[in-house]
Every structure is written in C-alpha cells, then in structure tokens.
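Hi R.,

Here's the chain you asked about this morning:
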Amino acid sequence: MINLITTCFSGILFGFGLALSGMLDPSKVQAFLDISRNWDPSLMFVMVGGIIITFIGYYFILKRPSPLFSDIFHIPVHKHIDKNLIGGSALFGIGWGLGGLCPGPALGILSNNFITGLIFMSAMLIGLFIGRKFKKWILWFLTKKFWSILMLINITIQTFKTENELELSLTKWDAVKDKFMPSFKEKGLKRYTITRIWNKKEQFQLGHIFEYLNEDAMKSCMPIWNDIEKQFKDKIENITIGYRGILIDEFDFRDK
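And here is the predicted structure, written out as tokens:
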C-alpha cells in the first residue's frame, strides 16, 4: 500500500512541476530549443533546477543500503556511449524540437488538449513499436545505405609457403613503407597494422588490418597499393584472403 501511495504522490508532484514550469506548452519548449529567433531561455532554469535537486537527492539516498520502499535501487547500469545512444538521442531531439513535447508532457496535455496529446501519444507508441520490432533491420538498412560515410575496415590474411618467404615479404615492405605512408595518410588511411599469426601451427601467416576513413578513402588508396606492387620485381607467392566491413562498435582502453 505504501508503494502505491508514494508512486501516486511522485506522479502528482511530477505533473504539478511540468504544469508550473511551462513544459506542457509546446510553443514555449520550441522557443527554448530554437536559438536562431526569439530565444526563450527560461526552461534552462527548469533543467538546471531539476539536475541540482536530483544530484542532491542521489547523493544522500544512494548512501543508504536500499531504498525506503524497495529492496534494491533501480538505477541505470549501462555506461557505454555507443552509436545507438547517440543516434537515439539525436532522433529524440529532432522529435522534441518539431513537436515541442516529450513523453511526460504529452501525457500531461491530455487533460487540457486531448486531441493533440492523443495524436502525439499514438504516433510515439507507433515509433516505439517500430524501433523495438525492426531495430536490427533499421540498423542493417542504414549500414547498407550509408556505409560509404562510415569508417571502413579491411582485414587481409596472407599465407606463405615458408618462414623465409614471410620474412622476405616483411623486408621488402620495410624498404618502401616510409616512402608511401605520407600518401596513404593524405588519402584517408587512418591506421594500418601488421600482425604475425602465431596460433596456427606449421602455417606462415601475416594479418593486415587497414582502417580507412570511409569507402572513398579506400578507393583513393588503391592506386598507391598498385604502385607498391610494382616496386617488387619478384613477387612472393602467397595465398591472400581479404575481408571488408564497416566499424560498428569500438572499445579502446589504451591511454591517450
């Protein structure tokens, strides 16, 4: 019973705060978000005030072993900033700027502007359904459609017949790399690493990882690779297998 009472009180307090601050007025929200015309900065005080009160509340409440009316604290645990968070935030901001409403105020205006609130809530629920149901397909489409603007990764595996031929290939590369690397950098090659594959017994393999700015950068670098091939009069026989992809996620724990 106490949980129900505190939930109702929290909802009433939240709704009263929205109405009192002007967050239920779409035109006021749009005036705050549009800094190019008659900017209304008053909602900034609402946000700053909310952040300060929440910060103070969290500071003291989280020192307790558990909440007053629950066994555990239900707080976000996902701290990684990824493409989904950035993309979702951008879409949310666009929708908020166009409509002047976000989910909380949209429920609030049902009391005095039922039709507008109902239309917004219906559209929002449809968007939530599409986002959850077709998230993988949407990401696939964006990847397929706009992959040329995303960082492109090329992974190439070279397999040589002998250890000597592998070492000879590295020696030849050492002789020309300083000459061509500035051109690669200029054309958009962001990073290039060579690895010796050691966990395949009796195989002599090198792994090459190329990170290009985008697809256009990769295409611009191809003539440079052709020039490098011409530097080698006697080609070293090997089996080369290449894989291309785009950067989907990244974790870099190196000290900057």
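One quick note: Residues 85 and 138 are 15 Å apart (CA to CA).

Cheers,
M.
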